[in-house]
Records
---
Amino acid sequence: MEQENEGAPIQTHLEELRSALLKALLGLGAAIVISIFFTPRLIDFLAQPVGGLDKLQAIEVTETISVYMRVALLAGGILASPWIFYQFFSFLAKGLKPKERSNILIAVPFAVLFFAAGAVFAFLVMLPSALNFFNQLMGVQTFLRIKSYFAFVTNLIFWIGMSFELPLLIFVLADVGVVNAGMLLKGWRVAVIVIAVLAAVITPTADPVNMGIFMVPLFGLYLLSIGLAALAGKKRKKAEQE
């Protein structure tokens, strides 16, 4: 009987997780369908850094449709991000006190804001820097293929946008007592190493300049995370005293 009682909460959590994932996927699917209607304009916009679509070349017959669907998927993910983040944070909030639950759900609009900031940074800063590096490397003229260019752009926007979620994730973990500001301050050396590795993986070029361009704001986000963790810690202590 005790084993059955212990297994019941686990089964309940799994059902709640499955429900949250299903709702997130349904929202993503609906957003992708909506995004299909304005994807051509978005493709034209993303091609501006190289001078427009006429500067790109397609070799395979299916390249254009694959690019269309890739951009629609990225647009759908961004459009559905508030709903997806809501499902994620609402699942984390289950089992917490009402006040703690409300604090976590407040993080939803900030999650969207941080992701949008990362996407803008990727498009306006990282992308031009990476294109200049590739175009100047060895002095060889580069003929851009539409499939590789949009794979490059969409991956850059998505992963850098996700990396900008670090402060919010730290705040949520600190709010539930998993981490604290002191722990993050002591581990700053490890954080620098992790950030360097992350920058090397995400940055599309291998030169240290572009890695540095990405590492500086990411380390700034880590410092912001420490401040948010301290704020969450103070709120948590005040709530415990009350």
---
Amino acid sequence: MLSGETERLVIAVIDIVKAEYQKTKRSMRRNLIWAFPVITLALAFILTLGMTDAYAESVWNWWYTLLLPGMLAIICHLTMAQEKKTNYYHLTTLPVSKRKLMTGKIIWLGCAILLANSIVFVGASLGGLLLTTRVPIGGAAIGVLLLTVTQLWEIPVFLFFSERFGMIAELLLSLFVTVGGIIIAPTEKWYFVVSAIPMRILCPYLRILPNGLPAEVGNPLLDRGVVIPGICLSVLWFILASVLVLNRFEKREVN
């Protein structure tokens, strides 16, 4: 059972998340959550037309190496752009902790990642059944959860970069960390680069290498021993980045 104070805090955060969701009504942010997965599914279909055992592999590889980070960067920018448009009215004048308001944004964006990953999972699984694939459906289902957890760290980082430096810098950061992750993920130094973690720990479940090629039996990247350490490192990065960003906005004053 939750204590009275904890229960009130949980209810307050849920209400803030609901309010954040309502702010996205009829906005591009909400549309991007399904538009990017649909673009990924269509792109993979075009690129793998006439090939066997390639559709779901292409979907997932394009998704977690490029389109998911890009989608998140744009949504984070639009989120902060909405706040800037009102001169951070909600963050600076409402009788609610700025920390709680920003936490609500982070939670909502985390839910957006989970929903987008789920759409990709459904589309890739159905397409794979029709067009042939070697990606196991059970592994892909686990991959949805792993990818969601290991991408959470990008939310506070992208929110900060968008607010501080603008969209171009944020997109360049997204591209830089993605390329770095692809390069480092197959090496023994993968745990030093947070963007390499999802690409590494998804290999045993999707059976896809970070470069998009299928992982053959016996490949060391299929070792599932990296999964728990990878999750722990990603969560640690997320907590650290969130604390720093929340502290920054907690100190923001009305201009």
---
Amino acid sequence: MAIYFITSKKHKFDEARAIIPGLKMKSLDLKEIQSMDPKEILEAKLLEARKKLKGSIIVDDVSVEFPGLNGFPGPLVRWMYEIVGNEKILKALDGVKDRRMSFRCTLGLWHRGKAYFFDGYVKGKAVKPRGNNGWGLDPIFLPDGHKKTASEMTMEEKNKVSHRGLAFNKLRKFLESR
């Protein structure tokens, strides 16, 4: 049975497929509701995706929280990154002592008539950009306990510690148990 990961971002799909080799990529234009609750966002995405595609479906949502910015931007990170980029995100932290940040990836899976959810959560801190691998906030994210930014890591290294890697590993274990 094919399992479709709904995304238009090939790099995101490649990371997921490295963990679950049989995944299929499907690009669908899904409306994304605005909410501070990732599960609510994913439930709406799954419902819309199921109208356009039959079978097992995976959708994702990512949140990034900066405690020094009162948890901003949360699930609004995609728009923040697309509008201002890493340089201005770091600029927003100028003068902020607390440079911690955390990533949460929540996956929604529609499988055999039921919805399931999987979280991956990782803490770290914002640093000056380093590295040429990865994408998005990877160059400025230094995971706790590591000396390399996510952008300095290989995909294999990153998938062991990243929010998306942790969530997809939970999903893989779930699928293997079925």
